[in-house]
Design goal:
The complex is a heterodimer of chains A (610) and B (46).
Chain A (H helix, E strand, L loop, with lengths): L1 H5 L9 E9 L2 E8 L15 H4 L3 E3 L8 E3 L1 E2 L11 E2 L14 H5 L12 E7 L2 E3 L4 E2 L16 E3 H8 L20 E8 L25 H15 L4 E6 L9 H10 L3 E4 L4 E4 L6 E7 L4 E7 L1 E6 L1 E2 L5 H5 L27 E3 L9 H19 L11 E3 L9 H5 L5 E4 L4 E5 L9 H5 L5 E3 L4 H11 L8 E6 L3 H10 L8 E6 L7 H9 L4 E6 L10 H19 L6 E5 L5 H16 L3 H19 L1
Parallel strand pairs in A: 8-19, 10-17, 11-12, 11-17, 12-13, 24-25, 24-26, 26-27
Antiparallel strand pairs in A: 1-2, 2-7, 3-4, 5-6, 9-18, 14-15, 15-16, 20-23, 21-22
Chain B lengths: L8 E6 L5 E5 L16 E4 L2
Antiparallel strand pairs in B: 1-2, 1-3
Classes of the chains: A alpha/beta (610), B mainly beta (46).
């Protein structure tokens, strides 16, 4: 942090909030609010003379509330810049009758109560999102008594208690009597690897999240070694489901911890009780290795809490980012572009993408910096030739395309009748806009309506009543079909696949044309929700297919003849199974039904088109 | 995009196996038939 602060090419904006971000790759316009510190950071020498005179005492957030701070403070000892700031909501003010004591104490006259927030605007070519994560709040787990028993602490509180720079200056004491604990227990997976089920005990995630928080096991191993080094006679028991010690040297650390006498008990405690006289804790656990119920009397229990995604959705909204089902930000591709955001020119570093340890965070940050540098070194940005363009002769400025674009790449103003314009540098080519455009005014390069219609017509040129037409997205379903093929999985030979970049590109017209040509069954297939390579473009597929099912029923066509399936690239078996099931359904579609459908489509769809 | 009826109970029908059930309508959640695991699940309107 100190290095970053001193680097000539890095401008560090602390105590600053992002107000707005507009633009696109290479041309982002950023507006920030530089909050008033009420202390001139260029003049403040962090002498600390202002602190003892401040009468306002508040819990120190950095020390997890284990010590206090004043209204004028440095957020944490290594903060850059090393200058004080005043929390103006807590400060009593500069009026002498109220307070103003810091003004008198500061010889350098750095304190300025007239300081105001400043709005600054600047342009950047790339953005790296590194907003981190939050820690799971264990207050919802009543059985561990975190809110009732003073000697039940979290792993973060433990970090502060054992730190030489912490509130106890590294003397490890327990909160109830300030004595050094001799028997310490660690409980793993607090807030991690817990099922969320609407009908179960954890409907809202307040008792934990399904994913593994990645670092808690090794953090506990590290803490146990630290305790053994400082206090060799301490008895340490770790309660766990399974220890995940993958990574370079981690298994050695785990083994070293066991060799130093740390006891690992496989089983998570069901309940913690407290002896009210001694404040010792009685931990009841089923030792699944030994197959017996045990009760451990401990002086202190450390809850190894997991992580949760940051709550701040502001940045996500500004950069049109999406998240995976666990709430962390979705990368452009989990294997090939793991540090890229789906929005071009935006990269991820650290835990905002998933929980990770320091080494992985540094690796990802280095990769993100390199990716950004590679982009900035270019004079021009190349985009794939699959972007959208708008035919202004047809566009009526309805604005539907603006609403469906997951990247915010289209601008239009329906009120002022300003027609749609695509920022091609931001367009990823999903085609959701082209599929939704009621005027067919949007053309997808290399995936035009004419090209896709030609494929549909070619696929159904012979014996269409014996065919099942599949619209498969490039990234998942088409790859799933490919996997089924290379894995030599059996699926009906009458399947005809038309590839689109995204299932969101599948226009209603394509489906109606397929039925008009006599197709017995049509399948629209795309990525699973959360896996879509175009963020939420497949959500529009679901909505569109819903509309088509309703329309089919109104027109007198069985909605069952249009199927929808989410198939990932790894689900070759699912693709084969789905195609076999659809073949069973196809056999029940009679020639009379197909002829009737053709007549209905010819009448209804053609009429609608006119 | 706001979707009408989101967060409210709705009737659904699987267009693969015909199973009908009631669930909360969530447009941002993948629909899967509880019986046959198909995604061809139609939201029925009144």
């Amino acid at each position: 942090m100190m290095d970053a602060g001193r680097h000539p090419n890095i401008e560090l904006m602390t105590y600053t909030e992002i107000e707005n971000i507009t633009g696109y790759v290479g041309n982002f316009h950023v507006t920030v609010r530089r909050k008033a510190r009420f202390v001139d950071e260029s003049e403040c020498t962090a002498c600390g003379d202002c602190v003892p005179v401040c009468p306002v005492i508040r819990p120190n957030e950095f020390e997890m509330g284990l010590s206090t701070r004043r209204a004028i403070y440095i957020p944490f000892p290594q903060a850059v810049p090393a200058a004080y700031l005043i929390n103006i909501d807590e400060c009593l003010g500069d009026v002498p009758i109220a307070c103003g004591k810091c003004l008198e104490a500061c010889d350098k006259k750095c304190i300025d109560f007239d300081m105001k927030d400043r709005i600054e605007r600047f342009e950047v070519g790339a953005i790296i999102v590194a907003t981190g994560l939050d820690v799971f709040d264990p207050t919802g787990l009543d059985e561990y008594g975190y809110t009732r028993y003073p000697n039940v602490i979290t792993s973060l509180e433990f970090e502060r208690l054992i730190s030489a720079g912490g509130p106890t200056e590294g003397h490890f004491i327990r909160p109830s009597d300030r004595k050094q604990p001799k028997r310490i227990g660690f409980i793993q997976c607090v807030g991690s690897r817990t099922e969320i089920s609407p009908d179960g005990p954890n409907p809202d995630g307040s008792r934990g999240h399904p994913y593994c928080s990645n670092i808690c096991c090794m953090n506990t191993v590290k803490d146990s070694l630290l305790l053994k080094d400082h206090y060799p006679d301490t008895e340490i028991t770790v309660f766990y489901m399974d220890i995940r010690a993958f990574g370079k040297g981690f298994e050695d650390l785990y083994r070293s911890s066991k060799e130093k006498g740390v006891r690992y008990v496989r089983g998570l405690p069901g309940k913690i009780r407290e002896d009210p006289t001694t404040h010792n804790l009685l931990v009841t656990v089923e030792n699944t290795t030994a197959g017996r119920l045990e009760t451990h009397e401990l002086d202190m229990v450390v809850l190894s809490v997991g992580f949760v995604p940051p709550e701040d959705g502001h940045i996500k909204k500004l950069l049109t980012l999406s998240n995976t089902s666990d709430g962390f930000l979705l990368e452009a591709h989990p294997k090939l572009r793991p540090v890229d955001a789906p929005a071009k020119g935006v990269f991820f570093a650290g835990c905002v993408e998933s929980p990770k340890d320091i080494k992985d965070s540094v690796t990802q940050a280095s990769a993100a910096a390199a990716r950004a540098q590679r982009l900035l070194n270019k004079d021009r940005v190349s985009v794939e030739a699959i972007t959208a363009w708008v035919d202004h002769d047809l566009c009526t400025a309805c604005g539907i395309c603006v609403k469906v674009c997951p990247y915010g790449a289209i601008t239009a103003d329906p009120k002022q009748k300003i027609k749609a314009v695509v920022t091609e540098a931001s367009c990823a080519g999903c085609g959701a806009c082209a599929a939704e455009c009621p005027q067919d005014a949007i053309v997808m390069r290399n995936f035009t309506d004419l090209q896709i219609m030609a494929q549909v017509e070619a696929a159904l040129a012979e014996n269409p009543e014996e065919k099942t037409l599949v619209f498969a997205c490039n990234w998942c379903s088409y790859a799933g079909a490919d996997l089924a093929g290379v894995s030599r999985l059996q699926y009906p030979a009458n399947t005809r696949v038309v590839r689109t970049m995204c299932s969101g590109r599948v226009d209603e017209d394509f489906v109606w044309r397929a039925f008009e040509l006599g197709a017995a069954m049509v399948l629209v297939s795309g990525c699973h929700f959360g896996d879509c390579h175009y963020m939420t473009a497949n959500h529009h597929t679901q909505k569109r297919v819903d509309k088509m099912w309703d329309r089919m029923e109104r027109w007198g066509i069985r909605p069952e003849r249009l199927q929808l399936e989410w198939i990932s690239a790894a689900e070759g078996q699912k693709f084969a199974r789905v195609m076999r099931e659809i073949e069973e359904m196809r056999r029940q579609v009679t020639r009379e039904e197909i002829e009737e459908t053709k007549a209905i489509i010819a009448k209804r769809w053609r009429k609608r088109r006119k | 995009m706001a979707t009408a009826g989101a967060g409210k109970q709705a009737r659904f029908k699987c267009l693969r196996c015909g199973y009908e059930y009631t669930d909360v309508y969530a447009p941002d959640r993948e629909r899967t038939c509880p019986k046959c695991r198909s995604n061809s699940v139609r939201r029925l309107r009144k």
